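How it folds
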Amino acid sequence: MGKHVLLLGGGHAHLTLISKIGGLVQRGHRVTLVQPAEYHYYSGMGPGMLGGTYQPGDIRFASRTMVENQGGVFIRSQAVHIDGAADTVVLDSGEAITYDVLSCNVGSIVPTDLADPANESVFSVKPIENLATARELVISLCRTRAITAAIIGGGPSAVEIAGNLHQLGSRPGLHRPRIVLLAGKSLMKQAPPRVAAMVWRRLNSLAVEVVTGARADHVDQQVIVLTGGESLQADVIFLAIGVKPSPLFAQSGIGTASDGGLPVNEYLQSIEYPNIFGGGDCIHFTPRPLAKVGVYAVRQNKVLAHNIAAAVDGGRLIPFDPGGDYLLIYNLGNGRGVLAKWSVVLGGRLAFMIKNLIDRSFMRKFQGMAG
């Protein structure tokens, strides 16, 4: 008798699994994807969309079409509770869905407690769709005057937003914005020193004001109040202060790791509930803590696809190997970037060209499934 496979989220770690829905359906199984929107945006190209290098259609997957073309079911909704003992997921619509095997790729969130969620001048860098809305606001404001755009955060997302804001503000007919990056203790503190130095030089060449040694305490309307009492007036504010796993598991009463992620074993299988699997930013890989970077979600693709199929077909699970060092590439706008792997650090146009080639190749691989 066929089983029901329920997928929460259509992100990086689920793409190969989604591409194989047709095979699962042919073998008599049912597959349902639950996602808040009909499209899933690729985070690695989000800053480039803000800067205008890419259009929204360039960086998104047509999740609904990909699923339905293969005989699966797509539900536009969001999971709010998982009952692992009853094999049931409750959606924000109130609907309860039972499953035989559940796979979670619900991602991460950027903490937004610095600002009122209703503040229309503040944009979290996740979900990525926010950057499309921010782009239109920046263009609208810069048509009439020079504005101040502030980024709260000092990591990769923050520096990519800063560089691509400069690119956006350099468009003909716009007043170039003042860009202030509130980096906290230091800029790119977790990056190799040579990479951090190269990023700093690039931002300096773009006249981005990098402020270190002070943290944002809260945002009041369009004013950022720092912990020392100083303040900064800004027309547009971006929150890029790191990510945390989705709160779904903690809110469901499922045991989580210290970071809030779902603890999984080497098979990407829940420690607490063996018929629950997960990948991407929402999990905590117990054999070895992993950074919250997209490369691991991409590497988990094939393992999750295999193990979900094995779970419903009675096959053998295979372990996930995170692999060694991965390529770091940052898009700093205007067709330039910074690349690092092993002892190689490269900046400029070639770095961005390599990133663009990799990203577009990844998108083509899965966008073609939408027909």
Observations:
- The longest strand covers residues 178-184.
- Residues 125 and 240 are 6 Å apart (CA to CA).
- The domain at 4-36+77-109+243-323 is CATH 3.50.50.60 (FAD/NAD(P)-binding domain).
